[in-house]
């Protein structure tokens, strides 16, 4: 009698497992693959990802070409931050807001994936595209005369933390914006501040340079610049007794944590009027 009951329980458990379908990891990967296929159909996003490295090389060579590791470091730090703001930040913002307003995510919440996993699965697709873009940039610049990084670890850490922060900032912008029609306006101030701030991290007036360091994404540009050109490039002589590299890391982690907290508290699965 006991054996029969055990067999029945095992059979029902197996049937329940079959009913539950694939695990969460498999579903997230499936969502990421689907998003990648959709990205491949967006010609504008692909054009930016593939041709941005060539465009930036052209700008460098048409203007005053950097000379020496320090100048190359400062230039590449800014250029890599441009890439982070254009692909993971802007593309993710428009994608998340469009999916939310068309209630795609709301319908997908009927699957085993929770809300955070749905957003993460969508972001992974753009993260893959961004990684390919930055690898192309590194290859193109190196082949056209840029020196190899003096500290590759700083370049990798700066690019990875910057990528994570750009994705989280995109979710933050969507969370605090009512609808897809408004998101282009709410994403622009942060984009403009980051572009300007990255140009000012070595500004002669220290107060201006310190203020620039506090702008989200600028610490990532500073880390990448220091990785290519050495620790003397970018921000220095901070008003606090903290090494600039440590300050960059702390600021990137802090901005990511704040953006995540606000996003979790304000996110809605439907557009707001």
General description of the model:
The chain has 273 residues and is mainly α. The chain has one domain. The chain is 78% helix and 0% strand.
User: What is the strand tally?
Assistant: 0
How many domains make up the coordinates? Answer: 1
Strand content: under 5%
Q: What is Rg? A: 22 Å
| Average pLDDT number | 82
Please provide the ordered H/E string of secondary-structure elements.
Answer: HHHHHHHHHHH
> What class do helices, strands and sheet pairing give?
mainly alpha
Helicity level: over 70%
Keyphrases for this structure?
273 residues; mainly alpha; 11 helices; 0% strand; disordered N terminus; ABC2_TM; transmembrane helix
Secondary structure layout:
Layout: H1 2-20, H2 24-41, H3 43-62, H4 68-101, H5 104-108, H6 115-143, H7 152-175, H8 180-199, H9 206-213, H10 218-229, H11 244-266
Helix pairs in contact: 2-6, 3-4, 3-6, 4-6, 4-7, 4-8, 4-10, 6-7, 7-10, 7-11, 8-9, 8-10, 10-11
Main location: membrane
Subcellular location: Membrane
Protein name: ABC transporter permease
